[in-house]
Design goal:
The chain has 77 residues and is an all-alpha fold. It has helices at 15-22, 24-47, 51-76.
Length: 77
């Protein structure tokens, strides 16, 4: 019927995916940088501070862990 045909979609790659596929060494560098940054954030969280600062650090830590998952997924594909 009209408009019900399924057309195959093109695979969409993000800029980060393209960069990592072209240069796998960049992924290793990013993983190392993220690992060191998350360690620093965890140390600051353990040391304590104001509630507002701890909330900001918690959000940053979640962002870095999400980026870490994305990078590992890109490397597998």
């Amino acid at each position: 019927m009209f408009g019900l045909e399924k057309s195959p979609r093109e695979k969409f790659d993000f800029d980060l995916e393209i960069d990592i596929k072209e240069n796998p060494q960049k992924a290793k560098e990013l993983l190392n940088k993220i690992d060191s940054t998350t360690k620093k954030i965890k140390q600051k969280l353990k040391s304590g501070g104001s509630k507002e600062d701890l909330n900001k650090l918690g959000v940053m830590l979640e962002g870095y862990t999400a980026l870490l998952k994305v990078l590992k997924k890109i490397q597998k594909s």
